[in-house]
Amino acid sequence: MRILDERVERYLHELQPTRSEVMAEMEAVAERDGVPIVHWETGRFLAVLCRTLDPVVLEVGTAIGYSTLHMAEQLQRGRVITLELREDCARQAQEFFQRAGVADRVDLIQGDARETIEAVQGPIDLLFVDAAKDEYERYIELAEPKLSERAVLVVDNMLMSGEVALADDAETEWRGHSLAAARALNVGLLDSDRWLACVLPVGDGIAFAARR
Ligand SMILES: C[S@@+](CC[C@H](N)C(=O)[O-])C[C@H]1O[C@@H](n2cnc3c(N)ncnc32)[C@H](O)[C@@H]1O
Questions:
Q1: What residue's CA is closest to ligand 1, atom 7?
Q2: Of the candidates 50, 52, 122, 196, which lies 20 to 30 Å from 79 by C-alpha distance?
Q3: Are the C-beta atoms of 111 and 83 separated by less than 8 Å?
């Protein structure tokens, strides 16, 4: 299943400009090793936010650092604190940050974000969530006390290839518990008295929210 019409998807793909050498290599590595990374459009959306807000970013889910690089490339005084569970991914990401010349703007903390968020120094201006799908709500809950008053939230995979729109018992590629978590979070954010949120069909679907 796909979120956008195939022709629209192809059109958007053809609009994409050439990436930096390291970013292109990360895409190739992710493709080769089956590492899930954000769609380029989501990376660019985050990059635009970083360009304009120059924020302190808290990213949950680094993998090899692809979305981190989109953001870090645009920062002037801002920085990215990024949290990753897996040691091998964290090591690979650090190497890419060095080579891309953004290591001075990125603090990578290896470990379970549900434990490491606590020690993160705020205030955080942009929270980007992209780790274990059924832990999203918990990451947001843990990070909330560290957010600045005007912080924005971006959450990836909120449409899950469009499968969130299918009936609960439909056959799907995404796992049932991930779909259930995304559906619950979409409802929770749209209905929240703490967040002013919308869901956008960018990449795999993102929730985008400001604090009320
Ligand atoms: C979808 S990938 C992140 C992709 C990355 N944001 C990008 O677009 O380049 C999700 C990552 O979250 C990590 N992860 C899963 N559970 C986690 C947790 N509890 N704490 C920190 N990282 C976690 C996984 O190891 C995986 O590398």
A1: 37
A2: 196
A3: yes
CA of 112 to the centre of ligand 1 (A): 10
Q: Convert the pLDDT of each residue in 117-170 to its tens digit.
A: 999 999 999 999 999 999 999 999 999 999 999 999 999 999 999 999 999 899
Å from CA of 148 to ligand 1 middle: 23
**51: which strand partners?**
none
Our CA dihedral for 16, 18, 23, 25, rounded to 10 degrees, sits at: 110
The long-range contacts involving 19-25, CB below 8 angstroms and separated by at least 24 positions, are 20/69, 20/73, 20/100, 22/69, 22/96, 22/99, 22/100, 23/66, 23/69, 23/70, 23/73, 23/100, 25/96
Structural domains in the chain plus CATH codes = 6-211 (3.40.50.150)
Q: Provide the 3-class DSSP secondary structure of residue 200.
A: strand
